[in-house]
Amino acid sequence: MGTATAQTAARPLRADAARNRALLLSAARDAFTERGADASLEAIARRAEVGVGTLYRHFPTRQDLLEAVYVEEVEALCRSASDFADDQPWDALIKWFHRFVGYVTTKRALLDEMMATMGKDSPVFRTCHEAIFTAGQPLLDAAKQAGAVRADVDFVDVIRLVSGVSMIKNAEPDDISRVLGVALDGLRYRG
Prior knowledge:
Elements: H1 3-10, H2 15-35, H3 41-48, H4 52-58, H5 62-79, H6 89-118, H7 123-145, H8 155-166, H9 173-185
């Protein structure tokens, strides 16, 4: 992970510094979602209502900020798997993959820029990839055990399917959700 991320993990932040970091991450997430990876760092600092110096203290480079937003989003996606713990296995799987598509759709520009600078084999991408599999695989396994999903389906198959749906260009979110529902229905076990 980047220097800012490693520094933050190494020592706890004061309350005001932690608040500023959270404000910057939130502002960056919103700016990157709205404007893509081209969002200016100065605009992000203004949006967070902190000085640009504060931004650079937390995130010395643009790459550090991109990485921190990406990692935070992946962690939130992975934590969200527990939101569906009380649902039937099929429903939990479907809801989580709908959330996954929402995450991928809004973070496409961020992912593209990070891929261009870091490459798909970077430690950050490997760690995040493993975290997504760790969060999602149990949902698929539970749906298989409940007899709701075909036994020949692997998690990587579903990730590829869902990722492909998330890449539909010029589609409204409702259209993507509908297509995702049709695609995921193909996973159902039909005894």
